[in-house]
Specification:
The protein is of the alpha+beta class and 422 residues long. The protein has 12 helices and 19 strands.
Length: 422
């Protein structure tokens, strides 16, 4: 009997930890069999600031997913984001070896290694080396050069790097939760696997993943990554603005944002009122719903203005005729797409993974309020993308990931540290 292949994705966010367990069938079809969500209290702007709290939240999410799936898992593909993430485009060139001058995997590996020669501080590590295109003897636009003949092989890459300390703390948190790390994956890259079509990537599209602490931006053009960026503002900033503006606890602000919030205050009936918990936590007061939305709109306008600025500075706006795809928790605000379209001057749609609807109905919901008795699917975009990435790892020629080397090095050091205590 053929052994089941199980893939686990772990989205470690500022607001929530989301764990997904999926089974990969013989014909490479994915079926999600377990989902677990837990509130996240150990991160700030996507960076681990409390390892114990983060590891406990990870363990809670994993246990819920395992209970639903009826199996135990020992490793996961882990998403990484945060303000420490930076990226750079790089070029590599090598001579093709061998008498027949046929490009082999060793030549591809060498040219990618050549592209990795970039300025790195002692506190930085390379997370991804993403091949945008290969060039063989001046012939451009090649996606996979294996087997081709030539004497000169070049590659254009997009390299993602991050803080060594932040990566180590993320890995430590996962290890303390009892899991190994299959790979570390940039979260907007993972989300792109779940919510973008190949046609959109080929035409040119920007994915905007609005998380709790950060907003992640990734641009595809002609099927390859052209640009990535992490903006230090997200849904938590909206909730904090509401808490201050309405003088209410942050938890109540988050609830009212989801239930009654809109990114366009002008569309709200000025007579409509809602009840809000006072800062004391005991009394309730009535306010106009429009006032709530007047607090929300400026912050959401800021998010989309920063996206517009990033696209303009990178020269990427002209590369995105397919427009913007919004995903992540804060993208679910009413009228967010309309506001984004007006600010960025591009067509906008919401991006959701397509096959989590059944299980999302039965998920415990400690972070997001269900709408119509359903958990919004956009909150699963990164976790589903991690599952997709894991299922295709090693088969997708577009992604050349070197983060496993980082993880293995961390494992060796961290396990030595742990052995001193256990």
């Amino acid at each position: 009997m053929k052994r089941r292949r199980i893939v686990t994705g772990l989205d470690i966010g500022t607001t929530k930890i989301c764990a997904l367990i999926a089974e990969l069938s013989a014909n490479r079809q994915l079926e999600i069999i377990g989902i677990g969500i837990a509130p996240s209290h150990g991160l700030r702007k996507g960076i681990v600031v409390d390892i114990d709290k983060t590891s406990h939240a990870i363990k809670s999410a994993i246990q819920k997913a395992e209970m639903m799936a009826g199996i135990k898992v020992d490793s996961a593909f882990v998403g990484i984001a945060g303000s420490h993430i930076k990226s750079i485009n790089s070029h590599g060139v090598v001579a093709v070896t061998g008498e027949e001058k046929e490009i082999k995997k060793s030549d591809v590996d060498r040219v990618l290694d050549a592209a990795k020669i970039i300025p790195l501080s002692t506190e930085e590590e390379i997370i991804h080396v993403l091949a945008r295109e290969y060039i063989v003897d001046g012939c451009q636009g090649i996606k996979d050069p294996l087997g081709m003949s030539g004497v000169r092989l070049e590659v254009e890459t997009h390299i993602v790097k991050g803080s060594s300390t932040s990566i180590q703390n993320l890995v430590k948190s996962v290890l303390r939760a009892g899991l190994n790390v299959d790979d570390i994956v940039l979260e907007p890259l993972a989300s792109s696997f779940a919510v973008l079509s190949e046609d959109e990537k080929e035409l040119g599209v920007a994915l905007v993943d609005i998380g709790g602490g950060t907003t992640d931006l990734i641009v595809f053009h002609e099927g390859s990554i052209a640009f990535t960026s992490v903006l230090p503002v997200g849904g938590n900033h909206v909730s904090n603005d509401i808490a201050v503006g309405l003088r209410t606890p942050v938890s109540e602000a988050e609830k009212n944002k989801i239930l009654y919030g809109s990114a366009l205050a002008e569309k709200i009936d000025p007579k409509e009122k809602i009840e809000v918990l006072a800062a004391s936590g005991r009394d309730r007061k009535k306010i106009h719903r429009k006032y709530l939305c007047q607090v929300i709109e400026p912050r959401m306008h800021e998010v989309f203005s920063l996206v517009k600025k990033e696209l303009a500075e990178a020269g990427a706006k002209d590369l995105t005729p397919a427009g913007l795809v919004l995903t992540g928790g804060a993208s679910l605000l009413d009228d967010a797409t309309e506001l984004a379209s007006g600010v960025v001057d591009l067509p906008v749609r919401i991006g959701e993974p397509s096959y989590v609807s059944g299980l999302s109905d039965v998920v415990e919901n400690p972070v997001y309020i269900k709408r119509g008795d359903k958990v919004p699917k956009a909150i699963f975009s990164t976790a589903v993308g991690l599952i997709e990435y894991g299922a295709n790892f090693g088969d997708n020629a577009q992604v050349e990931n070197k983060s496993k080397d980082i993880v293995n090095n961390f494992f060796n050091r961290i396990k030595e540290w742990f052995s001193e205590f256990f």
